[in-house]
Write a structure and sequence with these properties.
Elements: H1 13-21, H2 34-42, E1 45-51, E2 57-63, E3 72-75, E4 78-83, H3 91-98, E5 101-107, E6 114-124, H4 127-132, E7 138-151
Antiparallel strand pairs: 1-2, 1-5, 3-4, 4-7, 5-6, 6-7
Length: 159
């Protein structure tokens, strides 16, 4: 199946495939529940996916420093996380300046539980937010659009 074969009355590609494979009951929310908020704030790391204005993608690891949260839930629609120097390429932040859409993947490697958040991001140097993340250069605020709360647990194999 390619783009030329998809003619489903304006449906997105993921919607076409969920219909085809019978997975239309995937639980997706537009807000963060208390359970999700607690889960993502308890983790030591997560991954983000961004793309520039031409759709060229990039993914990045985000980890917390000692005693610093990796992400903070502000309310049921908003999360904020820090940006540290890293390797200095500024690919993620540069992409956010060009295209605000962001994907966030949270994983607990002990239990295999995974949760995803998709939303719109903006870069901020709000002093209140910078204060939550000592030594961060900037913060990234994400307005939540989709939350996949019940991603099936994965099994990670050790070599």
């Amino acid at each position: 199946m390619n783009g030329a074969e998809i003619d489903e009355g304006g449906l997105r590609g993921d919607e076409v495939l969920r219909r085809k494979f019978g997975t239309t009951d995937i639980p997706v929310s537009t807000t963060l529940s208390d359970t999700v908020a607690h889960f993502i704030e308890s983790l030591d790391f997560f991954f983000i996916a961004t793309s520039n204005r031409m759709g060229e993608c990039d993914s990045s690891y985000r980890g917390k420093g000692k005693g610093v949260p990796v992400v903070k839930v502000l309310d049921e629609k908003t999360v904020v996380f820090p940006h540290y120097m890293g390797n200095g390429t500024f690919r993620s932040l540069g992409n956010i300046l060009e295209n605000p859409h962001i994907g966030m993947l949270f994983m607990d490697l002990k239990t295999g539980l995974r949760m995803r958040i998709n939303g719109d991001a903006e870069i901020s140097d709000d002093p209140a937010w910078l204060g939550m993340f000592p030594h961060s250069l900037e913060t990234v605020k994400v307005v939540v659009q989709e939350v996949y709360e019940q991603n099936r647990p994965a099994v990670y194999h050790k070599k």
